[in-house]
Design goal:
Blueprint: E1 15-19, E2 22-26, E3 40-47, E4 55-62, E5 83-91, E6 94-101, E7 106-111, E8 119-123, E9 125-126, E10 129-130, E11 137-141, E12 144-149, E13 155-159, E14 165-172, E15 185-194, E16 197-204, E17 219-225, E18 233-240, E19 254-258, E20 261-268, E21 278-284, E22 286-287, E23 292-293, E24 307-308, E25 311-313, E26 320-322, E27 326-327, E28 336-339, E29 344-351, E30 357-366, E31 370-376, E32 379-386, E33 392-398, E34 404-411, E35 419-426
Parallel strand pairs: 9-14, 24-29
Antiparallel strand pairs: 1-2, 2-3, 3-4, 5-6, 6-7, 7-8, 9-10, 11-12, 12-13, 13-14, 15-16, 16-17, 17-18, 19-20, 20-21, 22-23, 25-35, 26-29, 27-28, 28-35, 29-34, 30-33, 30-35, 31-32, 31-34
Amino acid sequence: MNPFLPLGTYIPDGEPKVFGDRVYLYGSKDLFGGEYCCYKYHVYSASVDNLEEWTDHGPVLASRNDYLSEGIEATIPWSDGLLWAPDVVERDGKYYMYFCQSDGTEGVAESDYPHGPFLNPRQITMAGENIKGIDPSVLKVGKDYYYTWGQGNCHMAKLNDDMCSLDETTYAEALISREEGKEGFHEGSSLRKIGDWFCIVYASEYVEEYPNRGGHPTKLDYAVSKALYGPYERRGTIINNYGIDPSSWNNHGSIVKIKDEWFVFYHGSSNNCKYTRRARLEKIEVDEVNGFIKEAKMTSSGALDTIALPKSFSPTNAYCVEGGAYFTEKGDIFPLVNAKDGAAINYRYLDFSAKKEWKIVLKGKVFADCKAAVYADGEKVCEVELEAGSDRAEGELMLAEKYCDIKIMFSGDKETELVELSEVSFE
């Protein structure tokens, strides 16, 4: 179910990798009330057979001594900058974490284990100079390892055997680009393979109108080529996180094949800001023969086909908010706030097939008399009356669908915050 990590855990920029019988998520880490990222990385993993239960392996690399109580010291000698989007690759039994920092430097640290900790940080160099940029990714091609990075232009070069220097003779300035008429590349390149196709997943500002750039980079787009160095053809969008928060700005993630299924990992912001981003995932359809990926919808179900009811939900399990409302954090509660007239939340896909008669229960703080209309696949099926000063309201509905999209829309005084919603239950 989305978000798939604990609701107080904010992991954007996720790169999923399968090592052995586990899926590992490598991302940066936001803090509630902060800005982009912080000064440490955590690694999360789950069994390939169960993407609903994730293990936090704790802090694995830090750039400041702010986390000594968590057992991690700062070990990056050249910078105490924020730690931005990482990636990890395995070579000869060693795991290499490639990372970037807010001062533009990039580095690599290594471990004997895919979950870290990652030690011995070294800067990434090319032709004897430290490179500058953001958002590294690494792909093994035969016996070689290729490194992409950059913003505006997606650079690439082959790693030398030391895994920290790049062969300048293999450098490509722009596999894909933000330049006029190009692929709308913003940042967040993730070089992967689908079948015989090389595939770059990236945060995209592509728009149909020339010069094909300038949109908010809420989309993960992809471009493919049969040749490593291209030319790459933009084929479309994999996922768009627009609607997860009124102030949603960017997206970043990648794709991975787990057993026989493909997934996209991405993030969605909260708290009516560009930050406080939670990790999310969706199943995707990939044509490995022809190099196409069907655009996926954001869901509440995530790795599940549907969410079996009865069940209680946090508002943050919704995939979309409307009308200026947003998800926030208050202690151990993660409510929907700023819910005024016309505000709504949406859940997809809920399974009502266990019975036909259902009760919906809304819990939270009701500030003004109002109503909550419940829609199932666009059809109104229930209306709940909420009384000012109460903390609970309920209504009845008749449903039996297995894959259901539920919208809960509030109506009342147009100038007043109507409700702070903390829980939605179907009983």
